[in-house]
From TrEMBL:
<keyword id="KW-0378">Hydrolase</keyword>
<feature type="domain" description="Metallo-beta-lactamase">
    <location>
        <begin position="10"/>
        <end position="209"/>
    </location>
</feature>
<dbReference type="Pfam" id="PF00753">
    <property type="entry name" value="Lactamase_B"/>
</dbReference>
<dbReference type="InterPro" id="IPR050855">
    <property type="entry name" value="NDM-1-like"/>
</dbReference>
<comment type="similarity">
    <text>Belongs to the metallo-beta-lactamase superfamily. Class-B beta-lactamase family.</text>
</comment>
<dbReference type="GO" id="GO:0016787">
    <property type="term" value="F:hydrolase activity"/>
</dbReference>
<dbReference type="GO" id="GO:0017001">
    <property type="term" value="P:antibiotic catabolic process"/>
</dbReference>
<dbReference type="InterPro" id="IPR036866">
    <property type="entry name" value="RibonucZ/Hydroxyglut_hydro"/>
</dbReference>
<dbReference type="InterPro" id="IPR001279">
    <property type="entry name" value="Metallo-B-lactamas"/>
</dbReference>
<protein>
    <submittedName>
        <fullName>Zn-dependent hydrolase</fullName>
    </submittedName>
</protein>
């Protein structure tokens, strides 16, 4: 098994290479589709239909945005968690989808990336929906683990022979520290997910934002201490800011 790290638009892209096929550990963003196809053709010298599996760990723009296009172009199958319903459902979901795209553009700006088209459908129907602990068809050395908290359908991908794990956005690396992502919708699930990965004692952890890393016990302790006690979500952030604004106005009056 070879593992390739590709620089994506705003995140790292991880591509598994086996003699019989290729697997993306996440769906990347819509802006990354050309980059992925060029890497397969020009760097690996393989046909696009060698991409057999695209995993979608959760529905955010840099993890699901390219999946549908890659299914169409490469004839790959989309794998995701067997969780009922769509993440971006209802009016609230559509507003959240728009907010997440705006946040992705903001991150790109902070990274000094030029503005790219990253719009994608908020709805996805996987070809294969897996349960916690299932192996990925065709890549049976990889297991999916439910590590929810960031959303209700987050997946960690565990390569058992090497004991390496891809955790998507379970944690992000900022200024040499590992911190929880934003948002965290389910704090209790999030803390349980951290414990689950910690108990695996992985040889290394693959991040969507931070490369391949090794966490010490101190790093995990810091992460757990920084984990929110209450949901840290878009709407709560808006309400907090509004409360501060109106609170200041009331004080000044």
């Amino acid at each position: 098994m070879k593992l390739h790290r590709i620089e994506g638009y705003i995140q790292d892209i991880w591509l598994v290479e086996e003699s019989w096929g290729l697997m993306l550990l996440d769906g990347a963003s819509r802006a990354d589709v050309g980059t992925i196809c060029d890497f397969i053709n020009k760097q690996l010298h393989r046909p696009l239909n060698d991409l057999k599996i695209v995993v979608v760990t959760h529905m955010h723009p840099d993890h699901a945005g390219g999946a549908r296009a890659l299914r169409q172009v490469c004839k790959a199958q989309i794998v995701s968690a067997n969780v009922p319903g769509q993440w971006y459902r209802g009016i609230d979901g559509l507003l959240m989808h728009l907010t997440d795209i705006l946040l992705a553009h903001w991150v790109a700006g902070r990274m000094r990336k030029r503005r790219r088209l990253i719009w994608y459908s908020p709805y996805i129907t996987p070809d294969i929906a897996l349960n916690d602990g299932d192996s990925i068809p065709g890549f049976e050395q990889w297991k999916v683990l439910f590590t929810q908290g960031h959303t209700d359908r987050d997946l960690t991908l565990w390569h058992q022979p090497s004991n390496r794990v891809y955790v998507a956005d379970l944690m992000v690396k900022v200024k040499q520290r590992f911190i929880p992502p934003y948002p965290v919708f389910y704090p209790n699930r999030y803390k349980a997910s951290l414990q689950r990965v910690r108990h695996l004692s992985p040889t290394s952890i693959l991040l969507a934002h931070g490369g391949e890393v090794r966490l010490t016990a101190e790093d995990f302790d810091y992460l757990e201490n920084k984990a929110p006690e209450r949901p840290a979500t878009h709407w709560r952030s808006v309400k907090t800011k509004l409360a501060r604004i109106f609170g200041l106005q009331a004080t000044s009056n």
